[in-house]
Amino acid sequence: MDNLKYLFDYLDELNKFRNDSNTAIITDIDGTISEIAPTPMEAMVKPEIRDKIEKIADKFKFTGVMTGRSISNAMEMVGSKKIIYIGNHGLEQYKNGKISIKPQVKLYIPVIKKLKGEIQKKLKDYECILFQDKELSFTVHYRLCKTGDEIRQKALEVIHSIKGSKSLKITEGRKVIEIRPPVGHDKGTVLEKFISDNHIKKIVYLGDDVTDADAFNKLNELKREGKAETASIMVNSRETPDYIKESADFYVKSVDEVYNFFKWLLED
After folding, report:
1. Fewest 10 Å CB contacts: which of 10, 204, 219, 229?
2. pLDDT, block means (10 residues), the chain with 268 residues
3. What is the CATH number of domain 16-23+39-100?
4. To 5 degrees, how large is the angle CA 35–CA 265–CA 29?
5. H helices of 47-130, where?
């Protein structure tokens, strides 16, 4: 993390984003605007952060949330109908009052549903494991397990042993294993398309997890190619792998500091 800059020591570098109403401000949810909670159901976005997001949406033309959660869940947590929601790591999007899902994603819903049932059946004796059905994807959480590495390995073995799992995309995050359709989307490719479709020239992205590294790396690529001015901000934690730290431009120390950054964005 030697080359990673503490955001509040370098705010002058972000004035060009703050002073342009066409800047896009996109953020992850869990670990970024919501504290990591023991279970996904317990996580919440504090009212003061929700308020700042609502005001940011009034100031900037493009404001959005990009998350592994479903859009319906993300909207419950964030509360704003003014912003863009990209859910399930890009498998669905809410914009202008409508949720759109790519047709090829729908083909895998029956496969994921069947796999979900098999996973729950085979791991039912592990009471510390939680399962999250996200409509278009399925997540196994093992944060509550005392022997996390052992349970992670067991869960992966079970998932890969089930017929049909090879046709899906299996990825990992902070104490989670994700099962998704293999349609080629990650936060980086989704962000690139969003930037291209909306002719965005300046963008700030905030995240904290493995999947956010895809977004950070894509923004670095677009910046090198001169296609957009970008700034990536990582929320640092003891669970953050080093390679994620290496891909971001700046870091903050907590969700509370994200709130302070949002306050700064709204200053004249």
Report:
1. 10
2. 84 97 97 94 96 97 94 95 92 89 89 94 95 93 94 96 92 92 86 94 95 93 97 91 86 97 95
3. 3.40.50.1000
4. 25
5. 47-59, 71-78, 103-106, 109-122
The domain limits of the chain are: 16-23+39-100, 105-180
**Residue 49: predicted pLDDT:** 98
DSSP β-bridge partners for residue 101: 92
225 conformational bin, left if phi > 0, alpha if psi -120 to 50, beta if neither:
alpha
| Domains 16-23+39-100 and 105-180 agree in fold | no
Q: Which residue has the tokens 């690139």?
A: 192
Residue 208 vs residues 10, 176, 232, 251, 263: alpha-carbon distances, Å: 19, 14, 10, 9, 19
Q: What is the pLDDT of residue 2?
A: 58
Number of alpha carbons in the 13 Å side-chain half-sphere of residue 260: 11
Compute the Cα dihedral for 138, 143, 145, 148 and give only its sign: positive
Structure tokens at 99: 């949720």
The H or E element that residue 159 is part of is helix 148-161
- Give yes or no for a contact between 63 and 73, defined as CB atoms under 8 angstroms apart: no
pLDDT of residue 93: 92
- Provide, for the chain, the percentages of residues in helix, strand and coil under a 3-state DSSP scheme, each rounded to the nearest 5: 40, 20, 35
What is the residue whose two structure tokens read 């970024």? 32
- Kind of pairing between the strands at 130-133 and 250-252: unpaired
Beta carbons within 8 Å of 189's beta carbon, 6+ residues apart: 90, 214, 218
For the CA atoms of 136, 189, 21, 5, the dihedral, rounded to the nearest 10 degrees, stands at 110
